[in-house]
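Tip: read the tokens left to right.
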């Protein structure tokens, strides 16, 4: 397609991304195993599974249910949430409510996406941006000044058409539908503007709810869509750039999964210490947005590691997309 590495790096900051050979459920199972090991928990300890995704493995049943079975969790509440790239923060807020009211005592929150499945590989405005991945956390009730101290969620439905996959779902005509028609309808500039505004607004509201100043934030983990969006939102918030975690260069935009992937890396890199206040900000399809201030508990190391891996796959990312891209290119050529 008519693009270049130079354009992509300069306009988005993306240098690498992952293309999965398996569905979001399989990705989520690996993240789930690793989160369980990190928290020192067994599958049987989990009483609630929240699976956040815009790319479910199936529509029925929920991907949470598929993952529950694969993780060997005999009985638990299980549900999917679809809130675009803000999904992880909505999931955190939901988890906080379920734990706070005693409905859940040990909740597995997984975010996983196989966004490359949606892409039209002939469209340069979207084909270069998105990647696949997953991250997960175990949540339990904590002490009085720990956990979610402030949260702000919102959704600007009037702008929903700026990011949408049209005619996919039960509105589809099953007789006439051509799956190659599937595309991500996308107004990058519009989302860019709203993303910066939305992340700043939700970030500030979450901070004021938490009753802490930006100076007290040790680390900001924003949704990773575009380095320029992150830099601009950080600048408008007034946070020291050294406190902003960025890994969009290595994964592209993994939607709901981007924040927990970054969080996991931040822990690997000892960027989070016990008692630290972490600011999360996100925006995405909906157009949804969210901000959250999270105070870390007394432990910032993993209790264990899981050696769980994805099912084997020998194909490279390019080999995985090649047949799809070829079919899309042929279709575009036939349509002139
Ligand atoms: O997580 C929620 C999902 N949303 C997002 O991640 C998207 C947020 N938006 C963005 O990240 C940016 O708007 C983009 C990266 C999508 C685009 O960056 P931009 O600086 O807003 O570029 P633009 O859309 O204003 O396009 C600038 C030029 C255009 O050409 P003309 O009209 O100036 O001649 C585009 O046609 O860049 C062209 N262009 C490309 N050129 C090479 C657009 N995509 C590409 C491409 N390669 N892949």
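Filled-in amino acids:
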């Amino acid at each position: 397609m008519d693009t270049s590495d130079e354009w992509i790096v300069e306009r988005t900051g993306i240098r690498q991304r992952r293309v999965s050979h398996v569905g979001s459920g399989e990705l989520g199972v690996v993240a789930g195993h690793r989160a369980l090991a990190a928290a020192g928990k067994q599958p049987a300890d989990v009483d609630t599974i929240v699976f956040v995704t815009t790319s479910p493995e199936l529509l029925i049943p929920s991907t949470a249910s598929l993952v529950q079975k694969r993780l060997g969790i005999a009985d638990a509440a299980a549900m999917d949430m679809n809130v675009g790239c803000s999904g992880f923060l909505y999931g955190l807020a939901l988890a906080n409510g379920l734990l706070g009211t005693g409905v859940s005592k040990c909740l597995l929150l997984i975010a996983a996406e196989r966004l490359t499945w949606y892409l039209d590989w002939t469209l340069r405005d979207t084909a270069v941006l998105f990647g696949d991945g997953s991250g997960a956390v175990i949540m339990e009730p904590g002490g009085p000044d720990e956990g979610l101290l402030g949260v702000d969620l919102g959704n600007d439905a009037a702008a929903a058409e700026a990011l949408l996959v049209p005619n996919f779902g039960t509105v589809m005509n099953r007789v006439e539908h051509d799956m190659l028609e599937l595309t991500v309808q996308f107004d990058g500039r519009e989302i860019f503007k709203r993303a910066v505004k939305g992340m700043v607004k939700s970030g500030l509201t979450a901070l004021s709810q938490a009753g802490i100043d930006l100076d007290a934030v040790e680390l900001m983990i924003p949704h990773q869509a575009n380095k320029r969006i992150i830099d601009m939102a950080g600048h408008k918030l007034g946070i020291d750039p050294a406190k902003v975690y960025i890994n969009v260069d290595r994964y592209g935009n993994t939607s709901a999964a981007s924040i927990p992937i970054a969080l996991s890396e931040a822990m690997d890199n000892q960027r989070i210490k016990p008692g630290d206040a972490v600011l999360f900000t996100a925006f995405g399809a909906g157009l949804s947005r969210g901000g959250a201030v999270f105070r870390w508990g007394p432990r910032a190391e993993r209790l264990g590691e899981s050696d769980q891996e994805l099912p084997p796959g020998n194909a490279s990312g390019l080999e995985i997309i090649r047949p799809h891209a070829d079919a899309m290119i042929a279709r575009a050529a036939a349509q002139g």
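The two ends are 16 Å apart (CA to CA). The chain has a mean pLDDT of 96.
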